[in-house]
Amino acid sequence: LNTKKQAPTVNSNCCSFEDYKLTTEWLLNQTSHRPKVAVICGSGLGLLANAVNNRQSFRYEDIPNFPVSTIPGHEGCLVFGTIKDQCCVFMQGRVHLYEGYSLCKVTFPVRIFKLLGVETLVVTNASGGICQDYKVGDIMVIKDHINLPGFAGQHPLCGPNDERFGVRFPCMSDAYSKDLRRLALDISSEMGCSDFVREGVYCMVSGPNFETIAEARMLQVLGCDAVGMSTVPEVTVAKHCGIRVFGLSLITNKVSLDYSREEMVNHEDVLLTGKMRAEFLQKLVATLIIRCNHQEQ
Ligand SMILES: O=P(O)(O)O[C@H]1O[C@H](CO)[C@@H](O)[C@H]1O
Ligand code: HPA
């Protein structure tokens, strides 16, 4: 009798270690950049990559195995370069669960970053403000998150665990680096922008529809300050493989919690808010990259 436990096939990871290796080797052969920091640019935030010098850019569709963005505001370019003497890589655009990608594909780039030698990941996103104090254009330093799809089994680490990346049961209580959160708040205060920079809890929903009022009220009760349709899978996979994480949410709209409110959210307005705060966000992220110390974990 074969008593060896069989790994389940449902929900198992769709990318093999060989897939990750192939993509990494392809990139290492194409560029001499060896980034220590990676940045994922959220909806309308691709401009963040304009901070780099010595730029070398690849379209996602030209990179073997790389998932391709399908929505406006996500350019789909992987940009290598330097900021001062820091070598970094920017993803101009990400992919989402609601586009039809598995969470394994959604987080594929994060494991590529790991294999490229990245030690720090900066995630950014556009999100709706649940916290009543938040205004459109505010920036929320992510202190913690709620993985709502994860509670329902839509989790990037479901399936056989590859020990080469991390342990079966990773700890998430310190997912967002305290040092980098403090540094970001210090930089914002030096820039005189503390009045619109806050700290809070991000909640991921699967989307693609924006929340109903009843759903928004539920998220408020759960302790969410901002809501979006991304980021959490990337952060989870980064933390699993030992990458230090820092996250920023741009509040692009206020989420309706009240049936008498008439304003309706749409993706075009989300992208417009991104443009409004692009300059500040670019400076904040660039300064953070210059000042973050890679020895701290
Ligand atoms: O999270 P990012 O990629 O910034 O995008 C946000 O903006 C889109 C909705 O306008 C959704 O995809 C939401 O998640
Ligand atoms: O209000 C929102 N809800 C979910 N995702 C979002 N991304 C930007 N705004 C929102």
Automatic annotation (TrEMBL):
Q: Which InterPro entries match?
A: Nucleoside_phosphorylase_d (IPR000845), Nucleoside_phosphorylase_sf (IPR035994), Pur_Nuc_Pase_Ino/Guo-sp (IPR011270), Purine_phosphorylase (IPR011268)
Q: Does the keyword Plastid apply?
A: no
Cleaved signal peptide residues: none
Q: Binding positions for a purine D-ribonucleoside?
A: 211, 253
Q: Which GO terms describe its cellular component?
A: cytoplasm
The free-text function statement in the UniProt record for this protein reads: Catalyzes the phosphorolytic breakdown of the N-glycosidic bond in the beta-(deoxy)ribonucleoside molecules, with the formation of the corresponding free purine bases and pentose-1-phosphate. Preferentially acts on 6-oxopurine nucleosides including inosine and guanosine. The purine nucleoside phosphorylases catalyze the phosphorolytic breakdown of the N-glycosidic bond in the beta-(deoxy)ribonucleoside molecules, with the formation of the corresponding free purine bases and pentose-1-phosphate.
Any idea what this protein is called? Purine nucleoside phosphorylase
- Please tell me the species this chain comes from: Gadus morhua (Atlantic cod)
